[in-house]
Amino acid sequence: MTSTGVGKLVFTEGIMDHMVCLDILHNNLKDSAKTLTLDGNFIFQHDNDPKHTARNVKMWCLFHSKQQLHTLPQSPDINIVENLWATLETAVEKHKIRNKARLKQVLQEA
Q1: Is residue 42 a contact partner of residue 30, using CB atoms and an 8 Å limit?
Q2: Which of 19, 26, 34, 44 is the 20 to 30 A CA-CA neighbour of 53?
Q3: Are 85 and 107 in contact (CB under 8 A)?
Q4: Kind and range of the H or E element at 43?
Q5: What is the pLDDT along the chain (110 residues), one digit of tens a residue?
Q6: Which GO terms fall under molecular function for this chain's record (predicted)?
Q7: At what angle do helices 80-93 and 100-109 cross, to 10 degrees?
Q8: CA trace torsion 79, 82, 88, 93 (10° rounding)
């Protein structure tokens, strides 16, 4: 999330682990930065969730993002991602969602 918008919303199947996290970063971070016209000038922020702190994810981030900001998990005062999750949750609660396709649609519109 930036002052100019949010990056690509990626949907996954199953349980997200460090390999899925790494795949999402590898396939989406640079494109999202380009779409948001960040020109490589951004601070990548993630919390201390185990999938974010796995060695392979940390190494990938070290080589692919110039600056990183590490924050505590579930700390909305210092972690803007928690506020984004709250926005998505509010959007979902406004609809009677009965299937995955509708859920994806509501999340993308939020």
Answers
A1: no
A2: 34
A3: no
A4: strand 43-46
A5: 777 788 888 999 999 999 999 999 999 888 888 888 887 777 777 777 888 889 999 888 888 877 776 666 666 666 677 778 888 899 899 998 899 999 989 988 88
A6: nucleic acid binding
A7: 130
A8: -150
| CA atoms of 73 and 45, how far apart (whole Å) | 11
Residues in CB range of 15: below 8 A, 6 or more apart:
none
Confirm if 7 and 27 have CB atoms less than 8 A apart. Answer: no
- CA 106-97-93 angle, 5° bins: 70
Q: CB-based contacts of 50: which residues, under 8 Å, 6+ apart?
A: 18
3 state DSSP class of 25: helix
